[in-house]
Specification:
173 residues, alpha+beta, Aminopeptidase, eight-stranded mixed beta sheet, 8 strands, binds coenzyme A
Length: 173
Amino acid sequence: MKITGKNTQLRTVEISDAKFIVQLRTQSEKTQFLSQVENNLAKQHAWLQAYKHKELNGEEYYFVIESKTGEELGLVRVYDLQTDSFCWGSWLIKDGAPQSTAIESALLIYEFGFGQLAYKKAHFDVRKGNDRVIAFHQRFGARIVNEDDLNYYFNYTLEDYLMIKQKYRRYLN
Ligand SMILES: CC(C)(COP(=O)(O)OP(=O)(O)OC[C@H]1O[C@@H](n2cnc3c(N)ncnc32)[C@H](O)[C@@H]1OP(=O)(O)O)[C@@H](O)C(=O)NCCC(=O)NCCS
């Protein structure tokens, strides 16, 4: 599956992406606020095999963020699909990716969740201290609805997204 934007696209991961995923997820300075992934290609293969079943069942979607020419730029995941809200996260962009990759990939995730999956709400959590990402979501109009020692919990609605989509339409096409 592929979701295409202006300079960026999301395509569902394949087993053959295991190496890219392990490389990116074991870069310590970028993954401080993400759960730990082992530097073990066989384990990643097995994880991706299990994931592909979930994707087939429509339970979870894991994407490689790519340039339009197919250069791998990062990763992002849609999971915890509740009746009325989808969750996204595991968002990671490699150093040196074009500056618009973050905005474009976030817009494409919302196009997917609110458009293709037809949800009216989204939720996600961000670790306390991950200030850059907290600011990113707040600029998109997301609201903190809860917190605990570890995380802030955000909600985002289709209405929030439609306003942002209008504002950032130049990043979509
Ligand atoms: C999360 C992540 C993918 C976000 O990507 P990012 O490139 O850091 O995102 P930024 O907030 O810096 O946004 C990219 C650019 O768009 C700009 N931008 C972001 N939101 C914007 C907005 N709403 N309007 C205008 N410009 C905006 C930023 O200012 C930045 O520009 P700059 O490089 O000139 O400063 C990246 O930081 C990452 O890989 N982090 C490590 C993993 C992680 O913590 N993931 C999140 C887990 S919840």
